[in-house]
């Protein structure tokens, strides 16, 4: 199995992208304000009017000298007071990642680690906290109102200058008047004019 460094270099090489650049930890995030009740939210498509605290991109592509391997998808919902809330009102939801014209993560369910009766999707998150401070020890505590974090088992690459988006689909998810945030975290390569580091 190739490491994420090797996979990123392989994809960049196949596309003719520069192989030099500074290696870095990379987090891309995008916010949708006041989505209301909706069957589909699409992140990394609209950047108009968003501040630097709501997104760190201006287009749905990385620059020509940058690329990234996605290791984690992170979703959270805030109410209009800025407090974490249930994502989609605990509706069953799936997340998909589209890079170029390829669906690289398809309909991944996120309900396993949210909701009042949800179960943690891995051992790392099986004792995630809830809004209540009176949790009883020894029980599996769901991540009811904490961000939904999904670690990917495979290395998903966003190559330079290739459009990408994240879709959150549900059956009329209640997203409210606050904001829903999607972040993609992982390893990246950013442009550096220097020859050595």
Key descriptive features of the protein:
197 residues; mainly beta; 1 helix; 6% helix; four-stranded antiparallel sheet; 42% strand
Give a verbal description of the structure.
With 197 residues, the protein is mostly beta strands. It has one domain (4-18, 25-190). Helices cover 6% and strands 42% of the residues. It has one helix and nine strands; from the N terminus they run H-E-E-E-E-E-E-E-E-E. The chain has one helix at residues 4-15, and strands spanning 22-33, 37-43, 67-78, 84-85, 93-99, 102-109, 148-158, 164-174, 179-190. The strands form two sheets. Strands 1, 3, 4, 7 and 9 form a five-stranded antiparallel sheet that branches. A four-stranded antiparallel sheet has the order 2-8-5-6, with no helix packed on it. The longest helix is centred in the N-terminal third of the chain and has 12 residues, at 4-15. The two termini are 28 Å apart. The model is unreliable at 115-121 and 127-144 (pLDDT under 50).
Which radius of gyration do the C-alpha atoms yield? 18 Å
What is the global morphology?
globular
Q: Which series of helices and strands comes N to C?
A: HEEEEEEEEE
Continuous helix count: 1
Number of domains: 1
Structural class by secondary-structure content = mainly beta
* Terminal Cα span: 28 Å
Question: What order do the helices and strands come in, and which of them pair?
Answer:
Layout (H helix, E strand, L loop, with lengths): L3 H12 L6 E12 L3 E7 L23 E12 L5 E2 L7 E7 L2 E8 L38 E11 L5 E11 L4 E12 L7
Antiparallel strand pairs: 1-9, 2-8, 3-4, 3-7, 3-9, 5-6, 5-8
């Amino acid at each position: 199995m190739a490491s994420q460094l090797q996979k990123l270099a392989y994809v960049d090489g196949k596309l003719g992208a520069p192989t030099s650049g500074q290696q870095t930890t990379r987090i891309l995030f995008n916010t949708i304000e006041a989505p209301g009740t909706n069957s589909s939210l699409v992140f990394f498509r609209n950047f108009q009017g968003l501040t630097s605290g709501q997104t760190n991109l201006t287009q749905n592509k990385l620059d020509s000298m940058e690329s990234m391997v996605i290791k984690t998808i992170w979703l959270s919902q805030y109410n209009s007071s800025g407090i974490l809330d249930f994502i989609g009102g605990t509706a069953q939801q799936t997340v998909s990642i589209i890079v170029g014209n390829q669906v690289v993560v398809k309909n991944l369910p996120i309900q396993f680690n949210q909701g009042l009766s949800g179960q943690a999707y891995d051992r790392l998150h099986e004792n995630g906290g809830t809004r209540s401070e009176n949790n009883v020890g020894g029980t599996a505590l769901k991540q009811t109102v904490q961000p939904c974090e999904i670690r990917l088992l495979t290395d998903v690459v966003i190559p330079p200058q290739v459009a990408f988006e994240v879709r959150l689909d549900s059956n009329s998810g209640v997203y409210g008047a606050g904001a829903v945030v999607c972040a993609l975290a992982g390893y990246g390569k950013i442009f550096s004019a220097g020859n050595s580091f």
